[in-house]
Amino acid sequence: MSPPNGVPPGSTETEYLQAPTSPQDEAKCEPEEVLAAPENDAEVVVPPDGGWGWVVVFASFMCNMIVDGIIFSFGTFLRPIADTFHVTEAHVALVGSLMSGFYLIAGPFASAVANRYGFRLVAIVGSVLGAAAFALSYFATGVQYLCVTFGVLGGIGFGFIYVPSVITVGFYFEKWRALATGIAVCGSGIGTFLFAPISSSLIHSLGWRTALLCQGAIVITCVIFGILYRPLKPTKVHDIKIDEEETELKMDPNKLPPVTRMKMEKALEAMKSSQSCHGSQNSINRVLGANNNSNVYHTISIPQQRVLDISCYEKRLSVPFITNDDKAKDIDAKEYLLQDESANPVIVPKTVRRRSAVDPEVNRPMYRDDIFFSASLTRLPQYTSRTSIAYNLSVTRLPTKNDIEEEKNRSIKLWPEAIKRTLTTMLDFSLFKSPSFLLLAVGGFFTMMGFYVPFMYLTDRAKMYNIDENSAVFLISAIGIANTVGRVLCGILSSFPGVNALFVTNAALTIGGIATIFSGFSMTPEFQFTYTAIFGLAISCFASLRSIIVVDLLGLENLTNAFGLLLLFQGVAAVFGAPLAGAFKVATGSYDASFYLSGSLLLASAIMCYPLNYINRWELRRKNKTDNKLSVVI
């Protein structure tokens, strides 16, 4: 069997000190922030794969349906609001674009808050904030007023609803994650299908102001669904125990590959200079061993894909220690839970001789590397190469001592540890050093600039060409149905490990972009509904396969970091896309120019990402050459 993820070439599992490799593991910390181990028993959240999880799936489905349904149906408000304030539709489009943009931009911040206070509270706060934004929008005196209330406040509120609905399903499911997540995100397509005609009907019957109030009343129901996000309690795992008299576990550094030894030496030097972590350790043996602090699991970070600036190392639950001491081999077979049939590295914690006073039940969802991975876990070698418990331990980082103390004391801080670490991770700009990520981010930026244009202007363009009003409204609904079907198909397709998610996405965006450019070729209802079906299928691939592409290119350890930065890129793009397309319409007097722009942006995003696999392989080869040169120097 191949070594676990992150093992340098030429080393074996028994020669390699597995350690966290995500950007979170490079966060600065103080000596007292080292991970505490309350007892001999480690804590890990193991997804139950059912039970209350299906209630969470329902709640997530409903939240996705409401949030995306309202966002994608905003185009029905363009003309009524424009007529009220005597402005162009391009000006009004900025209101909806701000909501779409801040809905994404708020993602990293909502994630950070959820990491400290849980999914439930974040969803409830988002629901109240969103509903308040709609209520305030009733009193709008101009487009600028709506930009602040509906656009910014409403977008932030929706972002706080969106993040828990995306993350919490994966927290409850492991074996059935792809199915559960697929059902939940289908709420987006169903919401688009339902809210377009509902919003149009409310506007015609009650006016756009009262229609916003009605939508606000619907948004407040997300409080009920948020309450259903019941947090999972960590499970105790009886780890391998060692003799209480054993004070240190050692490993022969000569067995390490040269590159790994070099990184260990760099880490040692950094720790000596900063005195922020284990400054008292003065050799590789000491770094590999446990110090005398009985409350600490010990590890050191050896990144898989890049040499990082090291000043301190967070502690991950899955920390293998190698020892030649016969005392450490005295293991109770019944408690040998963390080592699978392939003899993967296992946890060997220091024995704690007295009970800690801190509460061990600290649930930190963002400390899981796979929290944003929505596809089947069978695509991950980390999952297929080990047991369920071992996998959950390997992708989970324990909370720091400060985390636990803040939880125990219920202290209220402006900048809590759990929030700080999450934001540091998701907004770590060092990932911009990767050409693969840069190209992926720019491609996503172009995609999102063209993404919302059809939703915003398709109905009005159809009306301009004398298509029946009911049929024009249902064009948006047709996109929703096609989006739902596409997400299901993508879920099935992604379950096959051999499927190239990047190529599928690029092909879908190419087809969707070309279809959008030629969408005005005929304004018959049949042609327009055909176009909406193609467009809906295309965007479903982009939305469903994004996390798979990130993991394929950058590794699971970079998923959280990449996801946070991509949300920022896509949010900024969403703010400018539809208003820019509206300006094209004003300048040319025709919506055709808007759709030309949208289709061209989608097509350009696909074309620039076609060589991404080759660039990624080139980047890895360049890194390997650099590592080989360094090993020769050593």
UniProtKB/TrEMBL annotation:
Segments forming domain Major facilitator superfamily (MFS) profile: 53-617
Keywords (A to Z) from UniProt: Membrane, Transmembrane, Transmembrane helix
InterPro entries in alphabetical order: MFS (IPR011701), MFS_dom (IPR020846), MFS_trans_sf (IPR036259), Proton-linked_MCT (IPR050327)
Pfam families with a match to the protein in the record: MFS_1 (PF07690)
Biased composition (Polar residues): 11-24
Compartment annotation: Membrane
UniProt-recorded Gene Ontology molecular function terms: monocarboxylic acid transmembrane transporter activity
UniProt name for this protein: Monocarboxylate transporter 10
